[in-house]
Amino acid sequence: MTAMLTRHEQRRNVLVFPTDFYRKHTESSSSDSNSMPNLIHNNNSNINTNKYLHSLKLQSLQGKGKTRPNTRQHPFQPQLQQLLFQQPSERFPRTHQDHVDASRTAFGQEYPAHSLTTNTLTNTIRPLDINLLTPTSAAPETFSSPSFPSSSCSTTSSTSHLHSDTLATSKASTISANPSTTTPNTNTKVVIRIPTLATFMKKRKATSDHTAAEPSAVSELSGAPNPDQKRLKIRLKLRSLPKEQPVTIAEPKPEPIVISDDSDDDLTSTESTLSQDDDEMDIDEESSDYASSSSGRVKLDHQLRHVLNTIFPKRDDKNRAALKSAFELCSQLRDDYIVGRLLGSGSSGFVLSAKRVFDGREVAIKVIPSDNKYTESKFRRELDILNALTHENILGFVEYFESPGCKFLVTEMGGSSLFDFIEMHKSPQGAALKGGHLGSGIQESVVRSIFMQLSLALYALHQNRIVHGDIKDENALITVDHHTNTYRARICDFGHSKRIKEGSLPSFTFYGTTILAPPEMDANNALREKMKRSDLQVEHDDWTRYYGYEADVFAMGLMLYTLIHGDLPSELMEREPKLLAAYKRRRRSVKTFPFAVLQKNIDEDLKDLLKRMLAVAPSRRITMAEVINHPWLTKG
Ligand SMILES: Nc1ncnc2c1ncn2[C@@H]1O[C@H](COP(=O)(O)OP(=O)(O)OP(=O)(O)O)[C@@H](O)[C@H]1O
After folding, report:
1. Per-residue model confidence (pLDDT) at position 320
2. Strand, coil or helix: what is 69?
3. Is 495 in the pocket of ligand 1 (CB under 6 A)?
4. Which ligand 1 atom is nearest residue 472's CA?
5. CB 42 less than 6 A from any atom of ligand 1
6. For every residue of 186-199, which 3-state class applies, written as one string?
7. Given this model, what pLDDT does residue 632 score?
8. How far apart are CA 132 and CA 420, in angstroms?
9. Which strands form 188-192's sheet, in the order they lie side by side?
10. How far is the CA of 524 from the centre of ligand 1 (A)?
11. DSSP states of 432-472 as a string?
12. Long-range contacts made by residues 155-158, C-beta under 8 angstroms, separation at least 24?
C-alpha cells in the first residue's frame, strides 16, 4: 500500500519556489516579489479543523442508524443542523444576472455577452458575519446575572466578552475589577460551569421572573456537573465569597507584567497555569488595570491575559509572544477591538476573530509579526490588492494598522474555510453517489453555487490583471445564512498575488502550495535544478512562460475536483517520492486530464469542465471567462 498525504498534512506542505535564482536566469521579473527568500516552508499549523463538528459528524455517521448528529448540548444546534443537513436548494435569492451586475459595478467591467444568461444557481447570501461553521471549544457563551455582572465575570471565555450583552461591558480595555465589589482575600476555588446558551436563557428568564429569590453567583453558575460542558469549564480562584455580594475578579496586583525578550513564558509561569487537561484552565485571580509605562508598554489586565491563554494555550508558541506584545504595544488593538478566538494561521501569521467596539461589527484580524522580509512583502501585496478591490466574493478590506513588531490587517469575517467545509461533509464510506450528493458528500447544486461564486471572484481578479497565485480550499471562506439556507463564498489570502503590469513580459513563478502547482511548473523546476547542478545557461525559450492566469485556472480545477471527490487526486497526495516522480513523468507525456480517477456517474458537463480546467497543457486549459460561461455552471 502506498503512503498518502492526508489533507491536513498537505496543508503544511507549502513551498515557495526560489525567486532569485529564477530571476537571475530569466529576462524579466515581477516587481512585487523582490524580497522573497529562496526557499520557504510553511509550518502551517492546522488549527482550523473543528473537532466539535467532526465529532458530531462521526456520531451521526457511526451512530446506530442515526442520520442526524446529536447537537443537544451545542448552542448553535439549529444552525448546525441546517448547515449539516439542509442544503441550499431552490430558494436562492440571487441570480446569475445579479452576480454579473454586482461584479460589473465593482469593477466597471463588462462580462462577455453570453455570460449574461439567467442562472438561478449562483446564489449568494446577504452578508452574515457569524461563523457558524467553526464553533470551537471556545463556543460563545454569555452570562450575566444581578449577582454576577458580565463586566466582572466575562473573563471565563475568550468569546464571552465578545458576545456580552452590551458593548460597554464587553470592551476589553475597560473591563477590570471593580474595587467596590472586589472580594476579600481567601484562596477559595470556585468552579464556574458555563451553561449552554439555551440553559442560560432559561435560567435568566427564571431569575428575572423571581428577582426576590436571587441565587448566589456560585450556586447559579456552578450547577450539577455536566461532562459535556467540561470544555467550557473554567476555574477561578477567588479570594472570598461574601454573602449577598456580587462576585468579581480580585483586585489588581500592582506589578506590571514583564516581558523578557528571551522568553514568553513569564506570562504563564506567574499568572496562569494550564491544567493537564486542555479543556480546563486555571487562572489566577491577579488582575491589573491598564497603565502607561515609560517603555510604551502597558500592563495586561486579567481579561486580556485570559484571552491570550485561550487563544494560544501552548507555552512555546511564538505566536503567543507576538500576540502578547501586540496587546501591550498596540492601543488600537486593545481599545478598538474585542478579540475573540483564533480563526486560523498560515505562514505569515495568524488570524483572530474580533468585534469592533464602536459599531459591534464582527471582523477578522490578521496579525503578522514583522520579523522577516518574506512576510513583509507578502503583507504589502495583500494589502495592496485587498485595498483596491471590492467584490461580493472577495474578502472585504476594513482597515490596517501597525505597532512595533506587528502589522494588523482587518477584514470582513469570512466564516469557515472551504477546506473545513469539505472535511465536514466527507462521508467515511468515500465516494458514493447518493441522493444527489457527490462523492464529497456535498450536493451538486451546492458545489455549483460555491464554485460559481469563487469563479466569478477569480474572473474579476483576472479581468483586473491580478493573478491570485495561491488558489486552494483553505483560501476560500464560506458563510452560511441559515435563514435563507444559502452559502456565500469568498476568496482570501492575496499574499502570493501579483499584478500584471501593462507591457510586462510573461514571467510567472509559482510561489503557492507545492502539490497544487500546475504541471508546466515541473518543467521549470527541472530546468532550475539542472542549472543549479551544472551552472548551465538555459535558453529563454526552454522555460514555460506565461503571466500566471493558467496556474490559477489549474488550481481552481483542483478545487472543483476536491469539491466533487472530497479529496485531491490521489496522485498528488502520494508521499513516496519515487511514485510521485513517476506520476509527474507520466503526466508530462499527456496533454489532457492527468488523473486516473474521476467520479463516475457525474454530469457530463461537469466532467467536461473538470477536464478542461485540469488540462496538462496550459494552451488547452480554458480561461476563467470560459469557465463562468460553461454549460455546467449556467445550467439549472
Ligand atoms: N477573514 C477571515 N475570516 C475567517 N477566517 C479567516 C479569515 N482570514 C483568514 N482566515 C483563516 O485563517 C487561515 C490563514 O489565513 P491566511 O491564509 O490569510 O494566512 P496566511 O499566513 O497568508 O496563509 P498562507 O500560509 O496560506 O499564505 C485561513 O486558511 C482561514 O481559514
Report:
1. 82
2. coil
3. yes
4. 26
5. yes
6. CCEEEEECCCCHHH
7. 94
8. 12
9. 188-192, 234-238, 281-283, 272-274
10. 28
11. --BTTB-TTS-BHHHHHHHHHHHHHHHHHHHHTTEE-S--S
12. 155/236, 155/249, 155/283, 155/302, 155/303, 155/306, 156/192, 156/194, 156/234, 156/236, 156/306, 157/194, 157/232, 157/234, 157/310, 158/306, 158/307, 158/310, 158/311, 158/339, 158/340, 158/341
CA distance 431 to 440: 6
Helices 604-613 and 549-565 pack at an angle, to 10 degrees, of 140
Q: Whose CA is nearest to atom 12 of ligand 1?
A: 344
Gap from CA of 352 to ligand 1 centroid (Å): 10
Residues 6+ apart with CB under 8 A from 204: 143, 144, 145
- Ligand 1 pocket test: pick from 353, 407, 475 the residue with the most ligand atoms within 8 Å of its Cβ: 475
The CA distance from 491 to 624, in Å, is 15
Q: Is 48 in the pocket of ligand 1 (CB under 6 A)?
A: yes
Determine the angle formed by the axes of helices 418-425 and 51-62, rounding to 10 degrees. 20
> Which ranges of the chain have pLDDT less than 70?
1-296, 314-316, 427-437, 526, 535-543, 636
Among 347, 339, 349, residue whose Cα is nearest residue 309: 339
Q: Which amino acid is located at 504 in the chain?
A: S
Which of 7, 311, 342, 343 should be mutated for ligand 1, with most atoms under 8 A from CB? 343
Tell me the HSE value of 136 on the side-chain side, using a 13 A CA sphere: 22
Q: Which pLDDT score, from 0 to 100, does residue 316 have?
A: 58
Phi, psi of 466 (to 5 degrees): -120, 130
CA of 492 to the centre of ligand 1 (A): 7
Query: H/E element holding 402?
Result: strand 397-403
Question: Using one digit for the tens of pLDDT, what is the confidence trace for 198-227?
Answer: 554 565 455 444 433 333 333 333 344 444
Residue of 412, 468, 493, 496 to test ligand 1 pocket, by largest number of atoms within 8 Å of CB: 493
As a residue count, the chain comes to: 636
Q: Could you tell me the strand order of the sheet in which 476-481 lies?
A: 416-417, 476-481, 486-491
At 324-372, the pLDDT tens digits run 888 888 888 988 999 888 898 887 888 999 999 989 999 999 998 877 7
Asked whether 411 lines ligand 1 (CB < 6 A), one says yes
The closest residue, in CA terms, to atom 7 on ligand 1 is 414
Q: What would the 3-class secondary structure string for 336-353 be? A: HEEEEEEEEECCCCEEEE
ipTM: 0.97
* CB of 88 closer than 8 Å to CB of 485: yes
The Cα–Cα gap between 80 and 85 comes to 8
Amino acid at 230: K
User: What letter would DSSP give residue 572?
Assistant: G
The number of C-alpha atoms within 13 Å of 195 and in the hemisphere containing its C-beta is: 19
Contacts of 427 (CB under 8 A, 6+ apart): 61, 441, 566
Does this model's pTM top 0.95? My answer is: no
Contact 343, 48 (CB under 8 A): yes
